[in-house]
Amino acid sequence: MKRICIFAGSSAGSSPVFAEQTKILGQALASRGIELVYGGARSGLMGAVADEVLAHGGSVTGVMPTHLFDKEVPHTDITKMIEVDTLHERKAKMSELADGFIALPGGFGTLEELFETVSWAQIGIHQKPVALFNIEGYYTPVMKLVEHSVQAGFVKEEHQNLMVASSDPQQLLDEMEAKEKPGLR
User: Does the entry feature the keyword Hydrolase, yes or no (predicted)?
Assistant: First the structure.
């Protein structure tokens, strides 16, 4: 994997552990030479992962809709900023650029990006690995919801495996690399 798209909150959350673990993930990406693709903001977990990748010599590409420049404060120190018109264009561009996806803790926007990406994998739009960085058990309820959806007959059992999850950044990246399909980038 050459580039990973990270979905993350523009807030740091209520526990300092979220930012601490996010920084460790940023270091892991940089040490493996994996470029970060993300929403382009300076704040919250988005900014924390970008800062850490940059601090360790990595490359960072942000993708941000013009109308969010006032609301999300774009990160001006990143390697490259791609300006788009809409959130839909942002997601499409990030997907185009990425070889895999990681969801960090975040709010509705992060959850929406995660589920859209998993839906795209489910219907074959992409075959890229999707991962949950399960800091402090943040994504445990989501994983239980997916299990419940399988049991209720709304999600096929084999689609439950479209996402990998770990609270350890190195293990998470290893699992993603193991799921990477031959022939992708």
Answer: yes
